Amino acid sequence: MDINHIQSAHCESGVIVNMLAYNGLKLSEPMVFGIGSGIFFIYLPFIEVNGVPVSNFRIWPGGIFSRSMKLIGAKVKTQKFRSVQKSMDVLDELLSKKIPVGVMCSVYYLPYLPDAYRFHFNAHNIVIWAKEGDEYIVGDPTLSEMKRIHKDDLAKARWAKGFPEPAGKLYYVEKMPEDTPELKDAIRRGIKRTLFLIKSAPLPFIGVKGICYLAKKIEKYPEKYSERKALLALGNLIRMQEEIGTGGGGFRFMYAAFLKEASHLLNNEELAKLSQELTGIGDRWRDFAYRVAKIIKNRGSAQDNYQSIARYLEEIGQSEIAFFKKLGKVKL
Amino acid sequence: MKKEDVPQDDEKIYENKFGPGLIKYAIDDKGEYTTVQSMGWEPEAIALKQALEEVDFKVTFALKEVREGRKSPIFYYMEKKLLDVGILAGYMNMWKWQVKRHFKPNVFNKLSDEILSKYARVFNIEVDDLTNFKQQ
Question: Residue B48 is nearest to which of A7, A239, A286, comparing CB atoms?
């Protein structure tokens, strides 16, 4: 197999970039992320980690894969399993046919990651390229180099428990489209779907308005939580925004990169301007992370701190609402 | 973010395992987007360290609970291995309430060898570490 590992910011879009490139279609990660309608915001008041609610800046796991592949016109197959043995057998069979396979796994069982990263987080994605003896050759899209992993570790990682549960999930490209895909159309449809998802959810914490909702919640953190929990909730937000392979600013830079690339392909100056605007918003998310980290570091629990960062977040939320309104008005 | 502004804070917490760094998106001199490898960013590392401190906090608390006879060693290892009741119940193929019951020292003392060895397998420890819990 002619392996050419491509490092990416995020795991899911990165797996897609690698799979497509192997099949002769070179797309950038932002392009995959954009047509896969990856950008999102959701505050999840019901799902608690460490006793505090979490937020996320991207669409649900698997969403970028299924959407982008559909719009490109590639036929893909996704499988889950009942038995560990079967899930490894099917993987080996695909590899013997020289098909690179995407697997969903827990980072806890990936020994090549720093210990500090190895929480029970199950929605990671990697490409398995080949098997050599008892080891698999792994392309973790977020890393610069390929890694090896023992078959027992891989089996554990694919069968981690918790939420979401991978249950041995694997996926691969069955058939590429016969003609080179019409990217312009895929871009339009990707943007339209993003606008629908991010603007029209009936609940206040889903979509772009959820940022303002979260800002109001943060303002009340000092009343609602102990100091430790309140700071944890803020720290968690920063990790979702920066640490988990978002490319910086909670995927906002990646989407801005997509809009810029789209502006060239569609010859649309408005998209280029909006890309610039979103870059500015991404910069403010970075600044937000910086301010929050300072509060965490100083263990500053003063009410003012929460009010000032809540206000800042509210402003970011308002500028995102305005941004997506403008994006909706662009003639595509 | 401009290309030259991409932070390169070399934090020890990454154990040099990210090589030249993870990918960030930034703007080049011509105003186009490009990728830049980043060694790390202090605010990110602060949030990560905080999450690890939370683990330590919970493990210390659990150790005290076990030593003072209020909780069983299963509770301690759950925290030590970064699990929670839901995930642990998943691995044990049990309900959450069953696992929670096993946190009670008197219930734990009556657990079968079979269940104890299953817990040991999940925690990746010896059964002895559970039954002779002393100096962890």
Answer: A239
| Pairing of β A170-175 and β A101-105 | antiparallel
Nearest 5°: CA angle at A267, between A264 and A272? Answer: 60
Two tokens, residue A108: 């806890």
Nearest CA in chain B to A299: B50
Record the tokens describing residue B68, joined without a space.
């003072």
- Using a CB-CB distance cutoff of 8 angstroms, which residues of chain B are in contact with residue A117? 48
Of B55, B16, B33, B19, the closest CA to residue A232 belongs to: B55
Count the residues in chain B: 136
Residue A25 contacts residue A140 (beta carbons within 8 Å): no
> Closest Cα of chain B to A86: distance in Å?
19
Mean pLDDT over A2-26 rounds to 95
C-alpha span between A290 and A249 (Å, rounded): 11
Torsion of CA A57, A60, A64, A67, to 10 degrees: -130
B83 and A CB contact within 8 Å: yes
The answer, for B69 touching chain A at a CB cutoff of 8 Å, is no
First to last CA, chain B: 46
Put simply, the answer to whether B15 touches A231 (Cβ < 8 Å) is: no
The whole-chain average pLDDT of chain B stands at 95
Over residues A200-224, the pLDDT tens digits come to: 999 999 999 999 999 999 999 999 9
Q: Cα(A58)–Cα(A241) distance, rounded to whole angstroms? A: 10
Residues of A in contact with B48 (CB under 8 A): 116-117, 239, 243
Q: Name the residue with tokens 């401190």.
A: B53
What is the C-alpha end-to-end distance of chain A, expressed in Å?
40
Nearest C-alpha neighbor of A53 from the set A236, A207, A306: A236
Q: What is the pTM of this model?
A: 0.95
Nearest to A8 among B6, B18, B23 (CB): B23
Half-sphere exposure of A93 (CA within 13 A, CB side): 7
* Residue type for position A270: E
> For residue A43, what are the contacts with CB-CB under 8 A and spacing of at least 6?
A53, A54, A55, A205, A206, A210, A211, A213, A214, A217
The Cβ-side half-sphere exposure at A183, using a 13 Å CA radius, reads: 19
Strand partners, A44: A54
Q: What are A291-308's pLDDT values in tens digits?
A: 999 999 988 667 778 999
In angstroms, what separates the C-alpha of A75 from chain B's closest C-alpha?
29
On the CB side of A210, CA atoms within 13 Å amount to: 22
- Give the residue on A whose Cα is nearest the Cα of B55: A50
